[in-house]
Amino acid sequence: MAQVTLSRITKRYPGSETAAVDDVSLTIPKGSFTTLLGPSGCGKSSTLRIVAGLSRPDYGVLQMDGRDITHLSAARRNIGMVFQSLALFPHMTVAENVAFGLEMRGIGRSERETKVARALDIVELGHLAARHPHQLSGGQQQRVALARALVVEPSILILDEPFSALDRKLRETMQIELYRITRDLGITAMFVTHDQEEALTLSDSIVVMNQGRIEQQGTPREIYGAPRTRFTAEFMGLSNFLPARCNNRALSFEGLTTEMPAAFEAEGNCTVALRPEGLSLSSTRPEGAALKGHLAEAIYQGASTSYTLDLPSGRRITARTTDCGLLPGQEAWIAWTPEALHAFAA
Amino acid sequence: MALTDTAPAPRAAPAPRKPVSPAWLTLPGLCFLVFVLLLPVGWLMALSLKPSMPGAFTMEGDWTIANYLRFFSQPFYYSTLIKTLWVSALTTGITAVLGYALALIIWTASPAKRGWIVLIVLSPLLVSIVARTYGWMIMLGDRGILNQALLALGVIEEPIQIMYTSAAVIVGLVHVFVPFMALCVLTSLEKIDPKVPEAAMTFGASRWAVLRRILLPLTVPGLASGLTIVFSLAISSYVTPALMGGPRSGMLTTFIYQQFAVTLDWRFGAVLVTLLLALTLVVLTSILALAARMTATWSK
Amino acid sequence: MSTYFSLFRRTGTAALFVFLLAPLVAVIIVSVNAGATPKFPPEGFSLRWYGAALANPAFTGSALTSLVLAAVATALGTPLGVAAAFGIARGKLPSSLRGLLEAIFLSPLIVPGIVIGVALLVTLSTAGLRDAWLRLTLGHVLLVMPYVIRTSLAALQSFDPSLEEAAHTLGASRRQILTRVTLPVLRPAIFAGAAFGFIISFDDAAVSIFLIDSSTSTLPLAIMSYMQYNFDPSIAAVSSMLIAITLAGALVIERVFGLKKFLGN
What we know:
The structure holds three protein chains of three kinds.
Chain A: E1 4-11, E2 21-28, E3 33-37, H1 44-52, E4 59-64, E5 67-68, E6 79-82, H2 94-104, H3 109-122, H4 138-150, E7 156-160, H5 168-185, E8 189-193, H6 196-202, E9 205-210, E10 213-218, H7 220-225, H8 230-235, E11 241-247, E12 250-253, E13 256-259, E14 268-274, E15 279-282, E16 290-300, E17 305-310, E18 316-321, E19 331-336, E20 341-345
Parallel strand pairs in A: 3-8, 3-9, 6-7, 7-8
Antiparallel strand pairs in A: 1-2, 1-4, 4-5, 9-10, 11-12, 11-14, 12-13, 14-20, 15-19, 16-17, 16-19, 17-18
Helix pairs in contact in A: 2-3, 2-4, 3-4
Chain B: H1 26-47, H2 66-73, H3 75-108, H4 111-122, H5 129-140, H6 145-153, H7 166-189, H8 195-202, H9 207-218, H10 220-236, H11 239-244, H12 252-263, H13 266-295
Chain C: H1 2-31, H2 48-55, H3 57-90, H4 95-106, H5 113-126, H6 132-157, H7 161-169, H8 174-203, H9 219-229, H10 234-256, H11 260-263
Helix pairs in contact in C: 1-10, 2-10, 3-6, 3-8, 3-9, 6-8, 7-8, 8-10
């Protein structure tokens, strides 16, 4: 296992105005599971391909345990990679697929067989070793790809949206399995996804990327609980953005002034976001900070009801809460739990 | 994110060594094609512009279009062009109808029967051209199966001549080309959502109307590629006209054979080759252009 | 109404199938005919015409020529075709140049066989090359190549590039990627194109008719010239054997790759 460091990595594709990867510096500590998260085209896959050695940066340095590997061929980086398409070799059996990397490293037959058997045991596929990939289910193919990447005892395991083709249930099973295996083996892993839930489930550390740059890096708890930019907040499922001002930790928006939540820092013009799930409605004014609104719409959704409210400023707010019996046309007071209020600069 | 203290001073990565482009891999094949096909055909076309001289195959002599004038001034010559065109056109037309019918049969067949039907439809292609033609000679000869059957049934009193007529050539050609047409149409049919004809039926369309208003327009691309393939194959076919039409089949290809192998008037023969190639190209491009225009509004 | 339709349909279908199969069935029936002429109904069952065909040196000699020719043409045309397909698919060429290259490489499919034969005859004679084997080989490589290119191109277009990247990250060199991953994955397509080219070459008459000489002939041309003077069932016997061979070849292609891919456009 190794620590991987990216220093000021920049990559521009020919014919493109903007850089796909723009001055990215990042450390993936030994044994940590780090996820690059962002929408398609944000540079996460380009970054991952640079770490894997499948693409060369125009600028910057890539190090593995302090050794410069910027120009080292992918074949010599000792990485294990799981591709989005899985890229299982269709003409080889499961065992041959898994053995391929060992063979390329010149490992003898008997040692190869032992290692392949062990790797297949880890992913619980020992009984399917003689099958060809097309004879396996999607989840089984996934495990073969994982075993093939793990068997070479890689310095870093790289996963490029490996679960995007699976249905939701299978994806959750595979996520749990990947979590178990990487933590059991203490593997350094770099994972790429556009699915925030997946990133929250799997990661020790999440790197949110946008337009080739790192937007924010932190633990899942930090990223979810205290997004520092509007982009991260939106990406983590926040909505109800309201313009605000912050003056010496006094936060005012929509005619209301309240204390700035401890997790956030901003001064001057800033933005407030209210997590829809953390809001509650009532017909009478609650204690503490609250906004008054006009209930425009109530859509019953079973476990919760989605309310749309018009604020006096003309802005709209959505609240998802248990049914409170209010009807469209009525006035309502909106209150929130402390965690539901977020604030960030601009 | 800020640089860590241990990070080395970043530097620009040197430009990687450019690998040789795989495009060069086309070179051996390209050279082969140029020297074995393009230059020889070009040479032959140039030869057609030299004065006719049986036995001569070099480039001697002045440039002239005399050979072309000779071809187009004598009915004996230019009639081959006309005959080739109408035999090919008729072959293509009949093939289109039969091929379309076969494609519909395959399309609507149950999966269990489908494999067998496809095998039957492809069978003419899977059989050596000489074997297939011999089969037709057995069928259509003066004392062939067809004549014997018609005589036995009393439909005719004397055997009718089918072999060595244009009818025999057309039958032989249609037989080989039907599979191409059927497959081309089938490719288009398979892209049609089976719900579309069903939907048309719920609006009260008859089967015939479904065919004419729904299936036919949607299969124009397949039909067009089938027509181009079949027409160009028909125009350039040699073995079937030679065997079933006889040496005097009057088709361009058999005429070419005579010029080059019997009369040895290569320079005049080169005129025929040039015309055959030109005809193929004109027909191919015009059918493709027509189809492109017909589908331009709905297909990409 | 609908019963009339289905009756019409059934007879139509049956008539079409008879049309497609009749000549093939006729050949096979005549080949086992005991009589000296292809009569119908046959005069008893006999395999004597198979014996006669196999004892005829004109058939056996030309069959050997055709087999060797097809094998040599396939052996030369396949690598040329595969390389060209790689160049076209991976060359990162501008699309207009790419289209031109594709058109040139597939042009032997459009140029009439007889034109190919004549053009080769004329130019090679001019160049003083009159060896029948050389002429035939050049012409037949031209026949094989486009089929290999067509199947290889189709396979390369659906090739998942991450297969090669996966091999690379697992430590494979460029050569190892090519020999252990890329070529094996393309193998069924290459094989099918080569097999189809082999059949086309073996069956060709139009290109070869100008390229043979008095001592070297291919099987289809030997049968054609035999047919000019004889009409006995030994031709049916040869034809039946050819039917069996091509059918076997086609079944192999179908198993490996699927026939439809070649015949459609």
